[in-house]
Each structure stands twice: as structure tokens, then as C-alpha cells.
Please model this.
Amino acid sequence: MAPMVSMAHQAPTTHPVAFLARRAATALAAAVVLGAAAAPAFADPAPAAAPSPSTQKLPAGLYGTKDPQYDGVWRQSLALLAQHTVGVRPAASAVDWLVGQQCADGSYTGFRADPAKACDAKTMRDTNQTGAAVQALAALGGHGKTVTKAVEWLKSVQNDDGGWPSMPGSPSDANSTSVVIGALAAAGEKPESVTSKKGGKTPYDGLLTFRLGCDAKEEGRGAFTFQLKGAAPNADATAAAATGALGKGFVVAPADGAADAPVKPLTCKGGKEDGAGKGQRAGAAADRARAADGGAAYLVAQLDKNGQHLMSAMPGAEKQPDVGNTADAVVALAAGGHRSAAQRPLAWLEKNAAGWARQNGPAAYAQLVLAAHATGTDPRAFGGTDLVSALNATGPKPAAVSGKSTKSGKDAKSDEGKGGGIGVVWVVAVGLAIGAGIGFLLSGRKNRGKNGL
Model:
């Protein structure tokens, strides 16, 4: 999930999982959410005096109370997916809202205040938001046509290198490519069979181009960069890619039994990667598994270095723990079967993440629920917090709730925005605070800063 926001494209290409940063105040907020190469999308000036969704009454089915302009679909998708994963049946209004946000071509953007108004050339279509919606609706079932249209749109904007940016037409990035891989898998597709029209590259071919190998400094080997080959290692991109390389999305099933795979750092012999090239082609299963292991080893090294949490890469917040990215790392480690390695940062989250989740709302609670699920941990007793009840309280009353959760509906609005715990309220620019799901996206895609983008 890790995606969760980076700063590179527009929505997640800089997208949901990577979005952030670049228009100047308003544009900056949009880019932040979207993430990255914003040039194409932001070429035209923003409409003058356009009312912000924050000044309007929010839709009844929407999760969270903060401005959904850049992360509405993202936080809704994560919330619905997390609820489904723990046996909660979301309200029909919540699911209908997400379905209704889709553009006629199958894509999604961050938020459409008026779904009756057709998407046009200025609509900032986002692969991250679209990929998140696919994962949620595929899990919930009953929305085959919506999912199929979204998947076909994602295929139509695949780059020649096999990967995806958050904003179509921009260079691919590790986070967005990983989100789309998860969406394809959730929709029943085989990612390795989805090839680019020019060059026949697969999503895995594209993803592995961001991996740092034996030509990188030893401490960065095995990590992934957000976007540019040779750029600095990026923990957020590494967490997303280590999960995506295994063909998995936001939901990772806990390992059976007591299996605990050892973490295997990338090893080099004579300047070449040991074991590389044994697959039939780059991006083959063996290479992907080795890439996931190398990414996991890099994450473990960073977690050990910082006291079992990752550090923020956001300008001005470099000394703060990155709660969202730490949760992504837990999911990545669990995806690789590294039970013991995942438990250590999970324990840190149980002690420190409650305040962050209260501040950042539904997507943050969902991220923690998914991290707990991936490790076989009870999200209803997460360091003294019932994450399921807290998540349910950020949206419409669920249609059905199993387990011990008792709260439902927006009975905890007052909690959203409260302090406590880690101070992770990101100020993007000129006083622009990233709200609700944006904070989550940011934690998952704040990469550009480290990559010099």
C-alpha cells in the first residue's frame, strides 16, 4: 500500500502513493497528492475562484471530514478495502460513491465534486487512484464492469518501459507501477502478461529498472529509487516495490504456520549480482523474488538503524519518523514471509501510531489495519487501539460488522485532526496542510525529495 504519496507526477506518478507537490500553493497541493511530473497536467492555469471542496458539504458516503480534492478516491478505496479485509461490510452509500467517481473512460481522479459532469481533457486522471479503486472494488465484488473498465484504462496508459507514472504521459515510477501491479492481480490479471505496445515490456520489467544493483554503493544495494536509475535509495519506493515485485497489492495474507523466511541481502561477486540472469528474461519470477528479498534487506537495515521505524523524506520533516512508510515496510516484509523482521517495526507502530492515525483519518487507519492483517495481528487490539472501530467511525455506518468492533458511523469526527503520538501533519507549502488521506499518501510517496525531483 503501500502509497500511499510521493512527489513526482500528478497523482500518483507522482501519485497516490506518490503525489505531491508542485503547482504553487494550489498546484503544489495537487501535485503533492498526485505526485510528480506535473508539467502536462498543470500547463493550464487553475480556474479562477473555483470553490474548494472543503467549503462545500461533503458527500454522505465519503470517509473522512477533510478536503477530499486530492485524495478522496484514495482514502475511500483504502477504507473500503481494509474494512472488507477484517469482515466489515461497508455501507452501500460508501461503495456507490466510489463507483460513481469513475470517468467514462474507466479512469479515476482524486475527487469529482459533481460526478454527473463528464471528465474532460483537464481532468487529472491518476493511475494510483484508479489502481486503489480497482483493488477495493475487486475485493468487494459485484462491480465487474467498473473494474474491467478501470483495468483497460490502466493498460492503455502503460509506458513503453512496462511501468506506469501517476499521471499518464510522464516517466514511470516504482510506486505507481507497484500500485498498478496490485490492481492487475486483484482483478484476476497476470501482470507478467500485460505488455507495453512498443517493446513488449511487462510491469515487472519496468519495476526492476528502479532497483539498485551491484554498481550502487553497498549500503544502498537492493533498494529501489522512486523514479530515476542511479538516484538515491528511497525507502518508500522500496517498500512498495518489494511488495509489487511479488505480484501483491495492498492486502497481503498472513503467512501460514510459523514460517519465517530469512532476509537475504543482495550479494555481489566480481561486481555482478550473484544469481542474476538465471531466469528466462529480466523480470522473471526468480529475479523478482531476489529483488523483493534485496528490497526487504534494505528496509530491515534502515529500520534497525532508526529504532524500528523509517524516517521522513519530506522537506522540513527529515528528523521525524515516517509512520505510514513504516506500515508499508511491515506489509512488504510480511509479503516476503519475513515474520520476525516484520514484527519489530509492527511493535513500534503499536506503541506510536495511534496519534498519527487520528490526525490523518481513514486512509491512515486503513494502512494500519492492513499492516496488522499482513502479520496476523488483531487490528481490534492494536497497542490498545481498536483500529476497526476507529476506521468505521470515519465513514457511514457499515452494513454489517463482525468481530468486536462496536463503533460505527461518524461518531468519532472529533478525533480526526486531534494531536497525540507522532506529529505527522505535513505542511506542503505556504501553509497548505496535507489532510486526511493525503498524509497517508505522502508517507507512501514522498520520494521525489530524496531523488532530487
Q: What stands out?
A: The chain is about 40% helix and 5% strand. Residues 285-306 form the longest helix (22 residues). The chain has one domain: 16-451.
